From TrEMBL:
Residues 72-491 form the Amidohydrolase-related domain. Catalyzes the hydrolytic deamination of guanine, producing xanthine and ammonia. It holds the Pfam family Amidohydro_1. Its cofactor is Zn(2+). This is Probable guanine deaminase. It comes from the Eukaryota. Its EC number is 3.5.4.3. Pathway: Purine metabolism; guanine degradation; xanthine from guanine: step 1/1. GO terms for cellular component: cytosol. The lineage of its organism: Eukaryota, Fungi, Dikarya, Basidiomycota, Agaricomycotina.
Length: 500
């Protein structure tokens, strides 16, 4: 039993290249949700022969999804950093920088998730919206409440989204109404949530929802709590970790003040240089291959080396970085270093839960860096490197999909549409009747004979360029109205055509 998708396909190949195939045929197992095979160039005249080559003669037991002109398949988005408990605040509090914004807007709202019925009402809405926005994998940075995070994990599990759900750990530097009573209490509810989430799916190897260790940030965690999280991380290497790093100058300075005299020695017998923010996490064994570090705006040279050495990944959250005036990270420098980078919406530091907004702002942020490329001391941009250059369309596509999967350490399972990977995908539709007035539909191009290629091109080249143009238009002008279907592990779970 297979689902066969026939039509245009886009998928990343590397940071600098993607495949745009106008006439692809994709075969997905209905049982496993895995991509069985893909043929990239199947003219309609070769459709049946191609199926026969793969042993498919009778299509009765299979489903064929025919993509129309102006529609294409692409991998789903991977949002590597989002606070679901802050979604009701999106678009509020933008007069503040980070620490004041936490105090005046974020902590009071997050405290309300102590009430399970409030959490259920909000999270039901949040998960549905995020799925329909095309996010097939999401790193959820929850509130500190165990029950609210159980509810979130249940809702995500029921929706069929791939996700990491974490209860944040924070036992200081927060108001009395929103702080954990002790390191032991924090650890206890963390362990309880981890085992609850792992129990949602009988076979953990097929689990879509996984727990994630979630220390809020170094400032909000006592050394005692970090020591306990360190022991937990060491005892459970498969446990993903997410936290914030180097977002804002005041935050970095205060982190250094708090940990100046109390930091344990670095792991692996290494000697420490100057105290750095990332070095704090490293001292507590929280920097590793499955660590997601949100922001990384003002990293020092030693931190870049350290993050690279530990193979940790960075979640670039440009909307939030602009909105809270945190700064403009030098993503090209990290990419040149070989550090894994994905994108995050960081709602509600960021005001949009659409990864398309994150893509647009990642592009703008990289253009700002380009304008100020003289401000990158010590970095001579290599001709084939990324530093001091704007991020290209292939790079933006990669960061929002495969890059995010790599940051979450699930890049071998999702992030691109290739045989053997799970079918986590979107059917995108760029037509003028989608209801999005911001995008010019492919149907209007056709009606008005608007072409964007070179007249001397072959028909195949014209179609390829048209598809590349549709992708760029979607990334910069699209929204959820252009996302017709959302699939996770082969299951149709969202989009404008979805009915619960
Ligand atoms: Zn955040």
């Amino acid at each position: 039993m297979f689902t066969l998708f026939y039509g245009a396909l886009i998928t990343p190949k590397s940071l600098t290249e993607y495949t745009a195939a106008p006439q692809a045929l994709v075969c997905v197992s209905k049982v496993s949700g895995v991509i069985e095979w893909i043929e990239l160039d199947v003219p309609s005249s070769a459709f049946e022969d191609t199926l026969a080559k793969h042993g498919l003669v009778d299509l009765q037991d299979h489903e064929v999804v025919d993509l129309k002109h102006g529609e294409f398949l692409m991998p789903g988005f991977i949002d590597t950093h989002l606070h679901p408990c802050q979604v009701p605040n999106a678009g509020s509090g933008q007069e503040h920088e980070l620490l004041d914004w936490l105090k005046h807007y974020t902590f009071p709202l997050e405290a309300r998730y102590k009430d399970g019925s409030f959490a259920k009402r909000v999270y039901t809405e949040v998960v549905r919206r995020i799925v329909n926005a095309g996010t097939t994998t999401c790193c959820y940075f929850g509130s500190l409440h165990e029950e609210a995070n159980r509810i979130l994990a249940e809702l995500v599990h029921a929706a069929g989204q791939r996700a990491f759900v974490g209860k944040c750990n924070m036992d200081r530097e927060a108001p009395a109404f929103y702080v954990e009573p002790s390191p032991d209490a924090s650890l206890h509810s963390t362990l309880s949530l981890i085992s609850y989430i792992r129990g949602l799916t009988p076979d953990p190897s097929s689990a879509l929802v996984q727990p994630v260790l979630t220390p809020r940030f170094a400032i909000a965690c006592t050394p005692d709590l970090l020591s306990k999280l360190s022991a937990l991380a060491l005892s459970d290497p498969s446990l993903t970790i997410q936290t914030h790093v180097s977002e804002n100058h005041s935050e970095i300075e205060y982190t250094k003040v708090l940990f100046k005299d109390v930091l344990p020695p670095p792991p692996h017998g290494e000697t420490r240089g100057a105290l750095t923010y990332a070095g704090v996490y490293d001292a507590y064994n929280l920097l590793r291959e499955n660590t997601v570090l949100a922001h990384a705006v003002h990293l020092e040279e030693e931190e870049i080396e350290l993050i690279h050495r530990r193979k940790a990944g960075v979640s670039h959250c440009p909307t939030s970085n602009f909105n809270l005036r945190s700064g403009c990270p030098k993503i090209g420098v990290l990419l040149d270093k070989g550090i894994k980078v994905g994108l995050g919406t960081d709602v509600s530091g960021g005001f949009s839960l659409s990864m398309l907004t994150a893509i647009q702002h990642a592009s703008v942020a990289s253009k700002l860096v380009t304008l100020h490329h003289g401000a990158l001391p010590g970095h001579t941009p290599a001709a084939d490197g990324f530093a001091s250059k704007q991020l290209s369309i292939p790079t933006l596509l990669y960061l929002a999909t495969q890059g995010g999967a790599d940051v979450c350490n699930i890049g071998a399972r999702v992030g691109s549409l290739v045989p053997g990977k799970a079918f986590d995908a979107l059917v995108v539709r760029l037509h003028s009747d989608a209801g999005n007035p911001g995008i010019w539909g492919a149907d209007l191009d056709k009606e008005l004979c608007i072409t964007r290629g070179d007249v001397k091109e072959s028909e195949a080249e014209v179609r390829k360029h048209e598809l590349e143009g549709l992708l760029e238009r979607f990334l910069f002008c699209g929204d959820e109205r252009n996302i017709k279907r959302v699939y996770v592990q082969g299951r149709f779970i969202g989009g404008t055509e979805f009915q619960a």
